[in-house]
Amino acid sequence: MFNSVEPSSFDPAVCYVAGTSYKEGDYSPYLFKTKDYGKTWKKIVSGIPGEHFTRVVREDPSKKGVLYAGTETGMYFSIDDGESWKSLQLNLPIVPITDLKIKEGGLIVATQGRGIWILDDLKVLHHVIDMPKEKAVRLFTPKDVYRMPGSSSPNAAKNGQGTNHAAGLVLHYLLPTYDDKKDTIAITIMGNAGDTIISYSNKSKEKSTTLKPKKGANTFNWNMRYPDAKSFDGMILWWSDLSGPLAVPGEYKASLKVNNNTLSTPFKILKSPVSEGDEASMRAQFNFVKSIDDKINEAHQAIIDIRSLQKSIKLYEKELKVDSLKIWSDSIGNMASIIEKELYQTQNKSNQDPLNYPIKLTNKLAHLNALSQMGTQDFGPTTSMVAVRDQLVGAIDKQLSDWRAIHSSLIPMLNDLMRKSKVDYIQIGKITDEV
Q1: Conformation bin of residue 251: beta by default, left when phi > 0, alpha when psi is -120 to 50
Q2: Strands 145-147 and 261-271, bridge-based pairing
Q3: According to the 3-state scheme, what is the secondary structure of the chain?
Q4: Is the N or the C terminus of the chain less surrounded, counting Cβ atoms within 10 Å?
Q5: pLDDT reported for residue 1
Q6: What angle do CA 397, 398, 402 make, to 5 degrees?
Q7: Which range has the top average pLDDT, 295-304, 305-314, 402-411, 420-429?
Q8: What is the pLDDT of residues 145-168, one digit of tens each?
Q9: Is 160 exposed, middle or buried (0-12, 13-18, 19+ CB in 10 A)?
Q10: Residue 431: its pLDDT value, please?
Q11: Which has more confidence, 315 or 272?
């Protein structure tokens, strides 16, 4: 009995068939190929074990000579038009493969009893087939990305479950050698014009942008988001979101830098086929979130600077023996503290504290960010969202203006007075000749 007939996409005279005879007690694989419209047939089963009877054969429409076969006990593939076969089992359970379908660069596998499995990106296999034998760093061209949410559990495979495809860009690269101490590996995502969106490195000091490459095959996932808004030590916010905006559909680039050598590849972010939003709405949403993040960055950097100022004042105020200097430093410190308390709720010491103390300006803006990024993010902000943002930004700008006045005028004046008063910032005990 012949279960599948597969006409070739590359040659009308070529066709492949898969047959079974297990009901007659014959468990041999039966795959045949014709090159002359069915006048003659050649058996093509070399490499498939004798009792792995075949149920289906399919041709890769994007790569001539590549075939996939489903048997009673798993998957096989051929890169030489069926002359030889190798296992393509990977993490697929030992299960009968009843049908195969190739769609949008993915291999969909129908099993008998273990659900549907998908090998997500056949481009990687195509690259490996064409790859020269000499060892070198390789960056494979990625599959285009749909702008849509998604998630996968890192423990799914350990629990015997299927692993969902990661949302966003999945980039595959190959390192023939790797030394964590000597080698610097960096991946940069760029716009089509070459502008940097975000960079990752094995030498990064930030956990969120740290790469952990290894020798051999590597996979990197970018969630399609621009960098998060700035945070600071001890920051506690109520119902907030500091994540960067989701990239809009368009053309992008990814580069892999290994020490002094750089490889790059283009890729596209595509609108989700189920999205009801248009690209103009997505751009409006992007600009809205970006404007919020930019203002939070500015405000949180001011808080970091204010805390640095306060630390410096405490460090040196014991040496300010001139009363006027103490008055100046205390006054500047108090003014800066007022600004910080308007921008951020400084009484928050635990995650429960926002229940007792009202949230301040940057928390309110981050909360608006959280609300605006709920759902698909395919639609622009509402009129009320824009009005609230503008009101909060105006209030934050007032505080930042006061801080800039302190930073640019009052602090230089205090430093000038300190220099004129010849304040000794470093005090060392007297040296005596006593033993």
Answers
A1: beta
A2: parallel
A3: CEEEEEECCCCCCCEEEEEEEHHHCEEEEEEEEECCCCCCCEECCCCCCCCCCEEEEEECCCCCCCEEEEECCEEEEECCCCCCCEECCCCCCCCCEEEEEEECCEEEEEECCCCEEEECCHHHHHHHHHCCCCCCCEECCCCCEEECCCCCCCCCCCCCCCCCCCCCEEEEEEECCCCCCCCCEEEEEEECCCCEEEEEECCCCCHHHECCCCCEEEEEEECCECCCCCCCCCCCCCCCCCCCCECCCEEEEEEEEECCEEEEEEEEEEECCCCCCCHHHHHHHHHHHHHHHHHHHHHHHHHHHHHHHHHHHHHHHHHCCCHHHHHHHHHHHHHHHHHHHHHCCCCCCCCCHHHCCCCCHHHHHHHHHHHHCCCCCCCCCCHHHHHHHHHHHHHHHHHHHHHHHHHHHHHHHHHHHHHHCCCCCCCCCCCCCCC
A4: C
A5: 83
A6: 110
A7: 295-304
A8: 999 877 767 676 666 666 777 889
A9: exposed
A10: 37
A11: 272
pLDDT at 67 over 90: yes
- Only one residue has tokens 């009843």, namely 98
Report residue 121 as tokens.
Answer: 């990106």
pLDDT in tens, 361-408: 999 999 999 999 887 788 989 999 999 999 999 999 999 999 998 888
pLDDT at site 16: 96
Does domain 1-130 fall into CATH 3.40.50.2000? no
Model confidence at 320, pLDDT cuts 50, 70, 90, reads low
Domain ranges, ordered by start, for the chain: 1-130, 279-420
Q: What is the pTM of this model?
A: 0.81
